[in-house]
Amino acid sequence: MTPDEFRKNAHELVEWMAGYMENVEKWPVKSSVKPGEIFNKIPGKPPIHPESFDSLMRDFNEIIMPGMTHWQNPSFFAYFPANNSPASILAEMLIATLGAQCMIWETSPAAAELEEKMMIWLRDLIGLPSGFEGVIQDSASTATLSAILTAREQSTGFSCNSEGFEKSGVLKVYCSEQTHSSVEKAVKISGIGRKNLVKIPVRDDFSMDPEKLKEAIIHDKNIGHIPCCVVATLGTTGTTSVDPLRAIGEICNKYELWLHIDAAMAGTALILPEFQWMLDGKEYIDSFVFNPHKWMFTNFDCTAYFVKNAGTLIKTFEILPEYLKTRTRGKVNDYRDWGVPLGRRFRALKLWSVIRTYGVEGLREKVRNHISIAAELSEMISKEDDFEILAPVIICVVCFRYIPAGYNEDQINVFNEKLIHRLNDSGKLYLSHTVLDGKYTLRMVTAQTNVTIEHVQKAWLLIKESARHIIS
Questions:
Q1: In-domain check, residue 118
Q2: DSSP per-residue string spanning 211-244
Q3: Is 300 within the bounds of a domain?
Q4: Mean pLDDT of 285-303
Q5: DSSP-H helix ranges across 99-204
Q6: What's this model's pTM, rounded to 2 decimal places?
Q7: Would the pLDDT of 323 be above 70?
Q8: How many whole angstroms separate alpha carbon 265 and alpha carbon 397?
Q9: How many other C-beta atoms lie within 10 A of the C-beta of residue 156?
Q10: Are residues 134 and 214 in the same domain?
């Protein structure tokens, strides 16, 4: 592709991108294709001769787009959002154009130093203690793995990295029954083992019970096991419940456990002064993760991971082959020593673009609006006799179900499962579900970048009509 051809194609592509953002609401939120449908439309062998960019775009529009679920549609209410914004998209274009591999300071000084500054901005913005240092990871799963590996090494005197588990004893990791599955995956990968992950019961509000945590730790110590790490959650996946940080932190401090905080979704709410209560007890935190790529309008992937003691993190991951030795080592942050991958993208540029474009007050305004929409939705649901709220509404997630009179719990579960499939298959909105105390629960997340109360009102009307139609 010549420079002139690139200019032509790029200008046309930007027009497509702008048109998509303007008209994303016209697409079905959830794709309706069947398994294998896209696969079978793609040729079995690659082309022998060059093909034009126009032909690629034609197939993109005809084959790929019908198989896409549109996460940027304001009627996307499922899972947690993977938001973007014009500012982050433009920055991503610059990142792709530069094509920099930002593994160490030497390979792109600006990338390393911008990342260092952005993590200071974020640390101060969400209210973490000033001594914390941060690094951008690709996902909260990777950050949590990094935390558990670091906790493993700290609790064994860094012997696992050098000698394996032969002499380390049985390590134990603790989380609540509502904690994200990435913790279980990290415990598997770390070598600690799934059977050594202790899931602590939750209280009525679905937050971790600190008394049960303390009992589990004491029990394990008494039988000769080594309590290693506690993962507490600010904003669980199912309900966005908030674990009691101070009570858990005091237990970790007493028994010398690493305390990792998973705030992947709800961490963005900490930019609001009125949500700083979630960080009560922050002096006990050893590591903390949240995802700007969920609710801070920065397109995937961009995870902010903070540690109280960067030296412990670096000691866990650093390795120095000859080809990575530099004259600046020890004077700068070489972020390839701060996590699993050697290769690193220039993700800090997206954060810089988003924070500068919105400004702190602009970010706060959007986040407050999403929280207020969830509160209004909760009020709308509570007014209906045949619906019920199943969990406290803390930020932007509302958990509810349809409860027609005269049916038992099993039948009600079946009705709600049918309801969510009917709604999602309509293409007019997209919800996801969880199960709370045996109850099939619909989750509605009001945090997509451009969602308004009108989108939610329209969705709620469809939900009510569809639910009552199932019974009638």
A1: yes
A2: HHHHHHHHHHHHTT-EEEEEEEEBS-TTT--B--
A3: yes
A4: 95
A5: 109-126, 140-155, 159-163, 181-190
A6: 0.92
A7: no
A8: 10
A9: 19
A10: yes
